[in-house]
DNA sequence: CGTTTTCTTGAGGTAGGTCAAGCGCTGTGG
DNA sequence: CCACAGCGCTTGACCTACCTCAAGAAAACG
């Protein structure tokens, strides 16, 4: 195998947590079908869909969203390269939310049929995939804490910290800099704020010298202060070694 | 087996979704250890714990919570009889949150060792247990939408609708009435509101005739109106048949 | 280079927070 | 049987974080 298969970021993420055997690597590599490009702004999955495959993000940024009857939109998770956006659809067939590309993405399907066969033949890999969805839930809980208990600045700081660490873990960011192709409207839909207020808070963090954000590119100038403001503790991301 | 084993509510919940064989029922029934009583207000699990078992709720009400450095508390899920409160600790060893009894509870442990063996021997049961954690995540997402997009009255209405349907599905409630042993402070910690504001909103719903709430006992007088106010759509609870 | 999208800033409004006090249970001990 | 302590509920007065509406500036894009 001369070129790195698309699944590599996932295997690396898993290998940081536990030992993955060559056979398991092979099984994972065989899961993915033909890649597909999705333009920024397009939906990868619509709410209510019943896909017969789960979508894996090879590269790009996308987000899970729910639309409300009153015209609102809540983003419930940001997904980056190496994430499945709807692994849970293997078990919960009908999508309770949609997934939208925030930037141009490359994605690949993993047929539910193949995933189900994998759960029959590879219990350890099954647990590792299960862990992926468990970490999703932990991130959801952390966002609940942010929305329920933190003010706007604190929420924004927390989000930046989380995204940086996840991107760094995926080898997509380093040196406290990363590309973040989201508009302030998107950000508001994550944080439960209006675009106007996101802007004001962002301007404030810039003035305080905590971060720069220009042309979709973020630089964290003072990680300590940002993490303190966001009350950020990375334990919930489960990035350390701990075999399942 | 003359008396119903403690695991019955879980098996019933699963059987509503998929066929559970007698062998699988047996395997589930063998999971649970000796029951334990937990008094209202006591923690079942502390944040940061690394339990070697997952806790199953036989009866009672408990809630997952996160404390913030500023003295706040966010409840991220309500668990009732038939739920595991920390099934995910099988995979994510260190608890990212705690669990507290809201009312007196009876709980039973399922050793991680036994759960792990179950994942080796029963792929279908494994998928059903995985589904339990996936539904937890779907509930988290719904709460994110509530906290991010809905106002106080709407959030409260949504919570009541969700709790009633989950209790009804577990055979613990019927006829739009149920016991809800939570204080208004607890409710505020779920909804991201102060106790004072919870009270005002609650008084309002009572005045509008949508529900009664006396001595920990809730009666929904107008389900349609309450569901409309809460923008409640039960699909995310995944209560219907849909084999995994 | 014109059009559209995104960002920025101001002025004024409101949902929900804070602080404070009184009320009504329920349980407990004299 | 009563006193009273403790907890949870209720209400009022005032405050503030964030929202709404609006308009211009600056990027991004074809």
TrEMBL record, chains A, B:
One of its GO terms (molecular function) is DNA binding. SMART domains: HTH_CRP. It holds the Pfam family cNMP_binding. InterPro entries: cNMP-bd_dom, cNMP-bd_dom_sf, HTH_CRP, RmlC-like_jellyroll, WH-like_DNA-bd_sf, WH_DNA-bd_sf. One of its GO terms (biological process) is regulation of DNA-templated transcription. Residues 150-224 form the HTH crp-type domain. The keyword Lipid biosynthesis does not apply. The keyword Nucleotide-binding does not apply. Keywords: DNA-binding, Transcription, Transcription regulation. This is Crp/Fnr family transcriptional regulator.
